[in-house]
Amino acid sequence: MTVPVVVIGAGVVGCSVAFAASRAGLPVTLVEAASGPGQGSTSASAAIVRMHYSTFEGVALAWEAKQMWEQWGEHLGHVDPTGMARYVPTGALVLDSPAFDSARALALYDQLGIPYELLGPAQLRDRFPYLSADRFYPPRLPDDPQFWNDPVGELGGFYTPDGGFVDDPPLATHNFWAAASALGAESVFGRTVISVNRDANGVCGVTLNDGRSIAARVVVNAAGPYSAAVNRMARVGADFGVTTRPLRQEVHVLDGPPELAGELGPTVSDADLGAYFRFLPGGQLLVGSMEPECDPLDWLDDPQRLDERASVAVYERQSLRLARRFPSVQVPTRPRGLAALYDVTDDWIPIYDGTDLPGFFVAIGTSGNQFKNAPVIGLLMLALIQNWLDGGDHDTRPVQWVAPHTGSILNLAHYSRRRTPNQGSSHSVLG
């Protein structure tokens, strides 16, 4: 069946959906307010590829996606003349903390056959001598008198070789877009959707701010921080059990440990201090927040109000945490970094689902922890769309998706809009 599809948003999620739908033979139009793909919140992604999530579906999805990043050109079946993003395997280190249930995550690793090593403090120091094995928990703000307290013992963690990062998130998004375009997808850049149109059968297309209407029987909301506004246009959301909100987040860059001389270390999840770190090519370190309880969250009612400049207060918080874990790192007085918007659900698990408007689908709440899953997200959305086109009712008979590389079976009800907030989630960027 040839059914016109409109995808709203050309971030990594929207471009993945456009690629998967185009490869399935559906005519696709991608609509994006920016002048090209991957220029919104995707461009600020740390692009870390790791498997430590709180739920089976989270771990299984990331494990499947990692196989696709490793075979990126084969997955796309297309070579982007602009260049191809590259997966950089560095390994992933997760430090012990009461804020993240490592035992639960590792039980899922065992279930899925993901290799890992448990490391005690001595092993941690031996393997990564530039890292402190001191325990600082709980995370604190720098103006807390206890921030500089002596450590309270030592910690270990676990390490998996199957982790790393994608070296260029905007380019990876462009790769998706170029592959979709080669399959016939059309793109409308520099335009916004001002109306989601409906008729007696459900959604029937969208109207743009230049007056054009694009007919479609399937519309996918992948608008990132603007997803809630698009849902309001479509008049959906009354039956949602979880909602999305834009959250302002900052990432900062510091020079890495001098003893590494520019070599790449593993990605580090450090809930003990409330931060994550990854190395950049050239040996610099990128640091971001894991939303510890002490950190104020900067929710924005209007995404247009985003200030993209790094703030001194957040920079000091994150850079000083990094310096406690990497003792040889020097902290400059002026911040280097940027701010962007997350699109976050109440439980930090995305929504991949249809809605009560027939033909209107959502791939939302994805920011912070779903870039790594982008190669799979388009396939999940395609499975939901095809199930609906075939007369299925995902709300009553959830789609069971089989991962082509790892063979995992995912119950897509895990990502339902109607769920109550998942208490098994970390309720942080870890998902």
Describe the model.
This protein is an alpha+beta fold and 431 residues long. It has two domains: 5-84 and 168-243 and 347-415, FAD/NAD(P)-binding domain; 90-164 and 248-341, D-Amino Acid Oxidase, subunit A, domain 2 (D-Amino Acid Oxidase, Chain A, domain 2, 2-Layer Sandwich). Helix content is 24%, strand content 24%. The protein has nine helices and 23 strands. The strands form five sheets. Strands 5, 6, 7, 14, 15, 16, 17, 18 and 19 form a nine-stranded mixed beta sheet that branches. A six-stranded mixed beta sheet has the order 9-2-1-13-21-20, sandwiched between helices. It is globular, with a radius of gyration of 21 Å.
